[in-house]
Amino acid sequence: MIRPKTDKEIELMRYGGKELARIIKLLSKKVTPGVSGKEIAKLALQEIKAADLEPVLMGYQGFPDCICISLNQAVVHGIPSSEKFKEGDLVKLDLTVGYKGMVVDSAITAIASDKPINQDVKRLIEGTRRALDAGIAAIKGDGTRVGDISAAIEDELNRNHLGIVRDLVGHGVGYGVHEEPNVPNYGSRGSGPKLTTGTTIAVEPMATLGTWQVGVLKDGWTVITRDGSLAGNFEHTVLVTDNGAEILTL
Prior knowledge:
- The protein is of the alpha+beta class and 250 residues long.
- It has a single domain, classed as Creatinase/methionine aminopeptidase superfamily (Creatine Amidinohydrolase), CATH 3.90.230.10.
- The protein has helices at residues 7-29, 37-50, 119-137, 146-159, and strands at residues 67-71, 74-76, 90-99, 102-111, 144-145, 163-164, 170-172, 179-183, 194-195, 200-203, 206-208, 214-216, 223-225, 231-233, 236-240, 245-247.
- The strands form five sheets. Strands 8-7-10-15-16 form a five-stranded antiparallel beta sheet. Strands 1-3-4 form a three-stranded antiparallel beta sheet, with helices on one face.
- 49% of the residues are buried.
């Protein structure tokens, strides 16, 4: 069941979202060669606690850290490691936090380099980010269908000739890390559940430079592209308003 949030709950999510946005921006600036995922995760936990937030990923279904850090061909759910980032590594930071029981979720793709990136990597990063923007722009307020969001994301990813990951989706968020409805990154306009005012969802395009097929590493968590191609991921928690959308993790 899709459960719209109350005004009080939305205010809690606004605070959590603004703090999450600040933290993930800080973390993304630390993504440089020679820094490890463990170091990023340690800083993330410090910032989460300092902001009076809850590290809801820690222990969630057995996940061993407070943030997902996925490198290169890893799409999502990577476990932070002590391995140092190398020049040109593509690093996905996916952070979920709680504030007084309300959960918000956001992800960004950063590159461990200050040098110009090649055109394919640029197409992946910018195309996936634009797909996120397109998905959010498709939310026209009360009555928007999930398929409207999905189709807008699919169109943008296809425009950039990117593989669309099909086994993973955006999702409702707020009372927990994952709620109804699922928000796929492909679909047909006018289809799927209707979103009402007060609904909060995580819009989350995941794309590759190759095919859409993915698998899971032996750690039971890290989702990778089967063809070894690079992957990108961007995500915002979004509130459906009467006539549009409000990004809560901005």
